[in-house]
Amino acid sequence: MSSSSAASGREDRAEAGARPPMREALVAAAFRLFLERGYEQTTVDDIVALAGVGRRSFFRYFPSKEDVVFPDHERCLADMTAFLAASGEGDEPVRRVCDAARLVLGLYAENPAFSVQRYRLTKQVPGLRAYELSVVWRYERALAEYLRERFAGRPDGILRADVIAAAVVAAHNNALRSWLRSDGEGDASATVDHALGYVQEAFGEQAGPAAGAQDRRQATGPIRPTATRDDDVVVVVSRRDAPLWRVVQEVESAFGRI
């Protein structure tokens, strides 16, 4: 066996016993160099030299230098896709995609210091901003595909699915970036929940008490109980195009209030 083959064998054995620390070491080395030298000035050879491994080890984990900046997004996208695929018929679609977006938040919130570093780096490097947009687009497509299946056969089902998916991503990213700009201070979950609440209120079919009341008023008009005796008459004012399930929901809700 040649010396290079022996070295390669030792590297493989060391790596086998070091996973996942090897992957983490590559990310740590990369970001150290990015911060010290700048992203453009850092090469893959620089990263592997600092991490103490060979080039082959780097490309086993990361297809490109850009991928080391976003090391866990492939896993997160797979988790999101699996989460949506595991949905049942009883899961309200808008709430489900909002919950799926929270998986992405978890990816950032589990390591705030790293997330803030990446946010600052991405702002400085146009190529990384473009890469990030491609990642965001893949998340949005995953949400839209799930919603298209759930809204299949409805009027404007595809349009509704795409609009809601875009709204979820916009709300999530707005809140996430606000948290990152604050250097990861505060409760990221509360910030994102607040933003996603707007989406749920606007598009959800089974919103919370306050949101649901507003959504019902917009969908079916006001409900006017005429009295409070046992022989009350309940008048429901509804748009002509309101779905039947919404009207039935309003009637049941009105009787529950009287």
Q: Could you please say which CATH topology of the largest domain applies here? A: Tetracycline Repressor, domain 2
Order of helices and strands: HHHHHHHHHHHHEEH
Q: Kindly estimate the percentage of residues that lie in beta strands according to DSSP.
A: under 5%
Identify the CATH architecture of the largest domain.
Orthogonal Bundle
Overall, the morphology is elongated
Classification by helices and strands: mainly alpha
Main sheet: strand order: 1-2
Q: Into how many domains do the coordinates divide?
A: 3
Helix content: over 70%
Give the biggest beta sheet.
Answer: 2 strands, antiparallel
Low-confidence segments, given as residue ranges, are: 1-20, 207-231
CATH superfamily of the largest domain: Tetracycline Repressor, domain 2
Q: Any idea what the radius of gyration is?
A: 25 Å
* Distance between the ends: 87 Å
Number of helices: 13
Walk me through the topology:
Elements: H1 3-18, H2 21-37, H3 44-51, H4 55-61, H5 65-69, H6 73-85, H7 93-109, H8 112-124, H9 126-150, H10 157-181, H11 188-203, H12 209-220, E1 223-225, E2 234-236, H13 244-257
Helix pairs in contact: 2-3, 6-7, 6-9, 7-9, 7-10, 7-11, 8-9, 9-10, 10-11, 11-12
